[in-house]
Amino acid sequence: MEPLPVTDSSDAQSSNMCKLIPPTLRENESYHVFLSYSSTDYSWTLSLVDVLEGAGLSVCYHERDFTPGRTILENMSECITQSQKVLLVLSAEFVRSRWCLLEANMSLFRDCLERKPMVPVLLDQDVCVPLHLCHLTYIEARHPDFINKLLHVLCTPNSDLRGSSVVPYQPPSVYNGKALLPLTAANEDSLNSWDAGVYSEMDVPDQLRLIVRDQSTYRAAMAIINQVSQTQVWLRPLWKRVVAYIAGLCFWKYDDRRRILLEMQKAVGKANVLMFAQKVLMGCRSTSKIYLVYISLDSCRQEFEKQFSAQTSSEDMFRRALLYFSSGYTCCLAKKHFPFTTAPPSGSSGHLPGGVCFCHYVSQMLERGQWLDQ
Ligand SMILES: [Zn+2]
Fold first, then answer.
1. Which of 126, 119, 131 is nearest to 89 (CA)?
2. Can you give the pTM of this predicted structure?
3. What separation in Å is there between the alpha carbon of 188 and the centre of ligand 1?
4. CATH annotation of 9-161
């Protein structure tokens, strides 16, 4: 993004900016605001520093204010402690960078202790905001009145910010049916239409850590999905397919793309059998992307127990429902769109207020005969 225009001091005199008086720094405070940003946004951030300092605020940022010879963590911890507020410059690169997330996590930690307000400034429109920041209200850098809005917040004493749109840290709002970060296949860039996406089997992504706490279950679930690429994709690479085609092996009659997507959806169903206890379901609508949704299936599971109590295994019925329908259900939840009327069946209020619960979805799909392998 373009750096902010330099404000002439005479302009500042005539604008509202000069009416805002920075809060008095207390004995243990050295700065009004600590800036956390990605180095790729350095020039924009520097232009912001000029504006803020021009308005009389003391600003702390690491390029200038960190003490040489101390670790980054020591520096960061001290600077945040000495600042009244923490400003996050949210760009796609900020979110991607672990270093910045670490900073964000640490300010959250401080927040818990001291209720230090965080002020997120949204630099790009398409930023996928980390879950533990998504409850905060942003100030958009592209807004015409951005500087005034920001100065107003920074010049408001912390004690007066309680209950305002920029709030001190609160636990992230996670609710049933909330779409979480979508996962993108590691091989997305080289993914052929007949190939299956492969996903990282390393630790749970940072943005999901507050939700998915069991690393080993998550890894096992991803390994199930990755097996599709290993066991179901025939004739890789391309030249083998061309040879097979020339040799007249009519495997071309299979619609590979659909078949592989179906195999991935079944694998995601299997993975969901593991994941549902973590209150997370996955859904696969394309081979290169997996949606994740936060959802508790406890009530729906009890409904299965009631419905199938006469039969030996309601547990088995629930498991089969997960295998066949959980991927499609998750995609509908993530997109907030269902292929049928979303009113719960008569006499039932459903188990997902304002949405379609899993047992309602399963009964609708069974009525339509839409099993995954048909
Ligand atoms: Zn239900």
1. 119
2. 0.56
3. 34
4. 3.40.50.10140
